[in-house]
Amino acid sequence: MSDMLILGIESSCDETAASVVRDGRSIVSSVVSTQIEEHKKYGGVVPEIASRRHCENILGVVRKALDDAEITLNDLDAVAVTYAPGLIGALLVGVSFAKGLAMASGKPLVPVHHIAGHIATNYLTFPELEPPYLCLVASGGHSHIIEVLSYTQFRVVGRTRDDAAGECFDKCARAMGFPYPGGVHIDRAAQTGDPSEFKLPHPTVAGNEFDFSFSGLKTSVINLIHNSQQKGVELNFNNLAASVQNTIAELLTEKTMRAAEALGYRRVALAGGVSANTGVRAELSAACERRGYDFFMPDKSLCGDNGAMIACQGYYNFINGITADESLNAVATLSLEDL
Fold it and tell me: Which of 16, 68, 132, 334 satisfies CB 3.0 to 4.6 Å to 33 for a cystine?
């Protein structure tokens, strides 16, 4: 099947996005409308506001994606949409719109899992990449080590027991006084910081050697800041940011390398919003290089939520017979393994 055009729609959090992708590998158009500025004043995403903005933006975003691709609905082979996991109200906007679009145009409707979409960004950056491989997915809401067995089959081998890596970045950043979303500010401050000034904990969890825990790290950073404020001691936030970034990068890399070794993978990929972090990218890349593993990470423009990742995964779902009818519903929490 060649020259297949898939429209991907993404609305799981605070980005309304749509994209047209050809044959699951090349982006024809990609439009993202972000709400960051609006949620910034609340220090995080307000679900009700996010849902309303999706309602306002989705038609214009999808229309622009089709216009930029210089095609009409008739030229599409299928409509793919994120249906899980995410903010339920936000997801419902995308799912409802995609269902209407598919029914009105007579095109197949393809349900896509948000995490599978993040993994698929690597196919858009590396056309030569094929499963099986091991992928670390790290974002604001997720931290998973996943065996990508095929384009549509996944096995979760490690997950966070509490906070996700991106959540830890954001909460530490908030404690340091950086605006939302905090990860990018920590990354910026870390560039000129000395990570050796602060010795931060490397939390471990019993049970599964590939599972993560970030809440202890977050708590120790918050306590460190509070204690210094009470004593009137001024902290060097560039150094603290560098320490936080270094510690999170080490925790993610250490577990991923352990899993790759134990499960016999020599190809490792990175995906999710945190994959844009320079410290995480450098640490994982260097660890793979030392072991002679092939390492893949998405182009920075594809790390955040976008429609192209949904269209890409939608292509693989579609050619593997995964479609939905008008009964498709949004699901707030759903493991990749339950697909």
Answer: 16
Closest CA to 20 of 9, 35, 34: 9
Question: CA angle, 144 as apex, 142 and 145 as ends, to 5°?
Answer: 165
Residue identified by tokens 């605070």 is 14
Go through 91-118 and write b for each residue having 16 or more CB atoms within 10 A of its CB, e for each that does not.
bbbbbbbbbebbeeeebbbbbbbbbbbb
CB 117 within 8 A of CB 80: no
| Per-residue pLDDT at 2 | 62
Burial (0-12, 13-18, 19+ Cβ within 10 Å), 225: middle
Residue holding tokens 């995906």? 271
Give the start-end residues of each E strand in the chain.
Answer: 5-10, 15-22, 26-34, 78-84, 109-113, 133-138, 143-148, 154-159, 267-271, 294-296
Using the structure block, give the residue that is written with the tokens 């990929």. 269
Residue 1: band (very low, low, confident or very high) from pLDDT cuts 50, 70, 90: very low
pTM: 0.95
CA angle at residue 134 from 244 to 188, to 5 degrees?
A: 25
Can you tell me the distance from the alpha carbon of 41 to that of 76, in angstroms, rounded to the nearest whole number?
A: 39
46 in Cβ contact with 59 (< 8 Å) = no
Q: Which of 290, 294, 247 is nearest to 270 (CA)?
A: 294
Per the listing, tokens 């056309």 go with: 127
> What's the Cα-to-Cα distance from 319 to each of 8, 23, 77, rounded to whole Å?
15, 10, 11
Q: Give the whole-angstrom CA distance, residue 227 versus residue 8.
A: 48
Spatial CA neighbour of 319 closest among 51, 37, 24: 24
Residue 261 contacts residue 288 (beta carbons within 8 Å)? no
Give the pLDDT confidence of 138-148 residue by residue, as tens digits.
988 889 999 99
Least Cα distance to 16 among 113, 97, 110, 122 occurs for 97
Say whether 143 sits in a helix, a strand or coil. strand
Average pLDDT over residues 279-295: 98
